[in-house]
């Protein structure tokens, strides 16, 4: 039978074993890169997993179009009002011509005139069609647009109550097919050209009538919009 290890020798053995374990741990810590344990655990866990491909963030287009307009065209977007807190907007070449942020949109018919050749805005104005006699001033404003002008029209709230026949004729002469169908609080947007013809494929007009059964808002129809690209004049 082998003799048992004496007490002092057993203590020395335990001390040497502890020193060896500490030194081994020290060397291991020096060899492993300095990284959080969670990162190391995640790296081990992710070994063998398929890489996740993330789609790039879509690039914002002019006037919030889904797809970009060709470089030789103007981008436009017309949005009618819809509900008391949904103001109308007119955007052209990524510039807000009329809208709540500018404080130049109001109840009635809102009109922006743009020089087709230069792309610069000529004038903007809103005409209340619920109160006051504003059909006459609106007709003069439309007629003041010089040749080769783009006219953008959008409604907010009511655009029909005080709209007289002369105003309807002036807008109809610009190519509107819906101006005589306007009703109380109809949502309406219209793109017109003065002194030249727009391509037939361009969406120029849209209307949505107030309907108590189908209104999106209380007493208000849903807002509507049209957008597209207008070919610039050849240089």
Question: How would a crystallographer describe the biggest sheet?
Answer: 5 strands, antiparallel
Unreliable sequence segments: 1-5
Mean pLDDT: 84
**Strand segment tally:** 9
Contiguous helical run count = 4
Compressed to H and E, one letter per element, the order equals HHEEEEEHEHEEE
Q: Helix- and strand-based class?
A: alpha+beta
Rough shape?
elongated
Gap between N and C termini: 111 Å
Strand content: 15-25%
Lateral strand order in the biggest sheet: 5-4-6-7-8
Helix content: 10-25%
* Rg: 35 Å
Keywords:
235 residues; alpha+beta; 4 helices; 9 strands; 23% helix; 24% strand; disordered N terminus
What can you see in these coordinates?
This protein has helices at 7-31, 37-46, 135-143, 165-173, and strands at residues 73-79, 89-92, 95-98, 108-115, 121-127, 149-156, 187-194, 205-208, 225-231. Residues 1-5 have low confidence and may be disordered. It is an alpha+beta fold and 235 residues long. Strands 5-4-6-7-8 form a five-stranded antiparallel beta sheet, with helices on one face. A four-stranded antiparallel beta sheet has the order 3-2-1-9, with no helix packed on it.
Task: Write the topology of this structure.
Layout: H1 7-31, H2 37-46, E1 73-79, E2 89-92, E3 95-98, E4 108-115, E5 121-127, H3 135-143, E6 149-156, H4 165-173, E7 187-194, E8 205-208, E9 225-231
Antiparallel strand pairs: 1-2, 1-9, 2-3, 4-5, 4-6, 6-7, 7-8
Helix pairs in contact: 3-4
């Amino acid at each position: 039978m082998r003799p048992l290890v004496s007490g002092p020798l057993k203590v020395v053995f335990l001390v040497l074993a502890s020193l060896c374990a500490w030194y081994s741990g020290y060397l291991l810590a020096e060899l492993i890169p300095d990284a959080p344990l969670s990162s190391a655990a995640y790296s081990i866990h992710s070994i063998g997993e398929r890489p996740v491909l993330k789609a790039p963030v879509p690039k914002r287009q002019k006037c919030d179009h889904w797809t970009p307009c060709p470089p030789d065209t103007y981008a436009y977007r017309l949005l009618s009002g819809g509900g008391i807190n949904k103001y109308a907007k007119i955007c052209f070449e990524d510039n807000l011509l009329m809208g709540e942020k500018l404080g130049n949109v109001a109840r009635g018919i809102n009109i922006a005139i743009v020089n087709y050749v230069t792309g610069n805005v000529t004038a903007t104005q809103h005409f209340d069609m619920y109160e006051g006699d504003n059909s006459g001033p609106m007709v003069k404003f439309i007629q003041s647009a010089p040749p080769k002008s783009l006219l953008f029209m959008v409604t907010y709230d009511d655009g029909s109550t005080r709209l007289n026949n002369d105003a309807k004729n002036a807008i109809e002469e610009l190519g509107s097919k819906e101006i005589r169908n306007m009703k109380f609080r109809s949502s309406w947007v219209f793109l017109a050209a003065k002194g030249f013809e727009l391509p037939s494929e361009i969406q120029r007009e849209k209307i949505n009538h107030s309907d108590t059964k189908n209104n999106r808002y209380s007493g208000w129809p849903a807002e509507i919009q049209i957008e597209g690209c207008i070919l610039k004049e050849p240089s």
